[in-house]
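Hi Y.,

Following your request, here is the sequence exactly as I used it, all 360 residues.
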Amino acid sequence: MFLVRLDLQFFAGEKTEKATPKKKQDSRKKGQVAKSQDVTTAVVLLLVFLYFIFGAKQALQHIILIMKETFQTYLLLDVTEESVFTILMDLLPQVALAVGPIMLVALVGAVAANYMQVGVLFSTEPLQPKLEKIDPIKGAKRIFSMRALVELLKSTLKIVFIGVVTFAVLWLNVEEVLMLSQKSIADALISLSKLVFQMGLAASLVLLLLSILDYMYQRFDFEKNIRMSKQDIKDENKNIEGDPLIKSKIKQKQREMAMSRMMQEVPKADVVITNPTHYAIALKYDEEKMDAPYVVASGVDFIAQKIKSVAKNHDIIMIENRPLARGLYEQTNVGDAVPEEFFKAVAEILAYVYRLQNKV
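Below is the corresponding structure, written out as C-alpha cells. Let me know if you'd prefer a different format.
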C-alpha cells in the first residue's frame, strides 16, 4: 500500500500535461517565449544583402566622395585639435548617409523578425542577476545537455549548408572567377562584388530555411519545458478559485444575502402556499410586471418556517396545499412565473384570497 502511494505521488509530480493558458501567460511575463535567434539573423542578413543589390550604388557614391575628400583635402591639413574636429564634423554626415540606410534596414529586419515570433513583449525579468547562472554544476549540465548537442548539430548544419551553397555559386561562375586575373582592377572589383552579393543572398536564404526548422524546434522545446504535472494544475486551479474554506464562507455569505433579499419580498406577496411543515412558496400577481403569478420566495424546512413567520407578522394569508407547494418548489425558482400546469390551482387560491381581502 505504501509503495502504491509512492508511485501515485511520483506520477502526480511528473510533468506530462500541457501548460495551461495561465502558465503560458506567466512565462511570457517573465520573458520566457519560444524564439529562434537564427530567424532574426537570417532575416537581417537577407534584407541587408537585398539592400546591397538594389542600393549599393548610392552607398558606393558616398564612400567614393568620402575617399576623395580625404585624399584631396583632409590629408593636406595640419593635425591640430581644431582640424580634427572639423574633419570629424564634415565626415559624420557623409558616413551617416553611407552606413545609415544599411543600419536602418538591419534594425527593421531585427524588429520584424522578433515581432513575428513573439509579438510585442516587454520584460525586465531576463535582465535581473541570478546566482544560478554562475553555478559551475548547472553550467556543466548545460554544456553536456541535449540542448547543447542540438546547438552543435545546428552549427554543423549551418556551416555545411552555407559552405555547399557558396561553393555552388562559385562553381556556376567559375569561368568569371578564372577571368579575374585578365581584368582591370575596377572590373575585377565589380565582378567580385557581384559574386559576394550572390553568395550572401544564397547563404541568407539557406540560413532562413534552417532558422524556420530551428524555430519549430524551439517551440517544441519550450512547450516541453513548461509542461505541468497534474498536481501543478490542481494547485493552479486552487490558486485561481481560492481556498475552499474561503469559498465556502463566501457562498454562505451570498446565501445569507439572498435569503435576506428574499425575506424582504415576502411582505409583498399575495399568498403563501404551504405543505404545511416542510415547504412554503410565496406568490404574487402583478399584471404590470408579469402576465402570470410569480414566485417571490421559496424554501424548505428552516427557510419555509422563516417565510411563514414573516408572512404571519405581515398578515399574509397562508393556504395549505401539499401537492401544489411541492410542485412549485421543485419546478420554479425565485422570480419565475408559475408553470401553466398550475394556473388553475393558483387562480382558485388567488381568487379565494382576493375575496377574503375584498379585492374582488
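Residues 1-12 have pLDDT under 50 and may be disordered.

Thanks again,
Q.
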